[in-house]
């Protein structure tokens, strides 16, 4: 496995903060209540993870679109089409309450990891890409699971 460069690693880890904060405020309800009262309910418990998770899936669609620009012919067409799926998934599948939205986001992040692998397999990502994406996705899934099941 290739070493992940410092900037993507640190920025990727920083991007986990809303997920980790959401999970912590689920596990520590008093902190969640304090957060809801001081900052707002959208920034506590599963709600911060759900909102931010939808944003991140949409962001990752853009990242995949960028990778698709390096493909040509039918692979490029497929790459562009596939790159839109995480954003569409977030848009259509995150309604219906925190439990179903959380489960849908979990499925979306698992699917995103599959798309990451596909673009990596076609050689259009940095060599260290999957190491970063597996690590970040694992933390996201654990945090979302805490939001859904606790």
Keywords:
single chain, 150 residues, mainly alpha, 8 helices
Describe this structure in words.
This protein starts with 5 loop residues before the first helix and ends with a helix. It is mainly alpha-helical and 150 residues long. It has eight helices and no strands. The longest helix has 24 residues, at 45-68. The mean pLDDT is 96. It has helices at 6-14, 17-27, 29-38, 45-68, 73-83, 85-93, 98-121, 129-149.
Alpha plus pi helix count: 8
Structural class: mainly alpha
* Stretches with pLDDT under 50, minimum 5 residues: none
Give the helix level as a range of percent: over 70%
- The tally of beta strands, per DSSP, is 0
Kindly estimate the percentage of residues that lie in beta strands according to DSSP: under 5%
The outline comes out as globular
Beginning-to-end CA distance, first to last residue: 34 Å
Order of helices and strands: HHHHHHHH
In short:
This protein has 150 residues and is mostly helical. It has helices spanning 6-14, 17-27, 29-38, 45-68, 73-83, 85-93, 98-121, 129-149. The chain contains 8 helices and no strands.
Question: Any chance you could write out the topology, listing elements then pairs?
Answer:
Layout: H1 6-14, H2 17-27, H3 29-38, H4 45-68, H5 73-83, H6 85-93, H7 98-121, H8 129-149
Helix pairs in contact: 2-3, 2-4, 2-8, 4-5, 4-6, 4-7, 4-8, 6-7, 7-8
């Amino acid at each position: 496995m290739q070493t992940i460069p410092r900037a993507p690693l640190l920025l990727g880890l920083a991007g986990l903060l809303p997920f980790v904060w959401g999970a912590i405020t689920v596990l520590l309800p008093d902190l969640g209540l304090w957060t809801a009262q001081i900052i707002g309910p959208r920034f506590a418990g599963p709600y911060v993870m759900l909102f931010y998770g939808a944003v991140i899936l949409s962001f990752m669609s853009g990242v995949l679109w960028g990778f698709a620009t390096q493909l040509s012919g039918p692979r490029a067409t497929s790459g562009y089409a596939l790159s839109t799926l995480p954003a569409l998934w977030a848009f259509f599948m995150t309604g219906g309450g925190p439990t179903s939205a959380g489960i849908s986001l979990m499925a979306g992040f698992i699917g995103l990891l599959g798309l990451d692998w596909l673009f990596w397999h076609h050689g259009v990502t940095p060599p260290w890409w999957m190491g970063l994406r597996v690590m970040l996705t694992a933390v996201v899934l654990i945090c979302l699971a805490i939001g859904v099941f606790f």
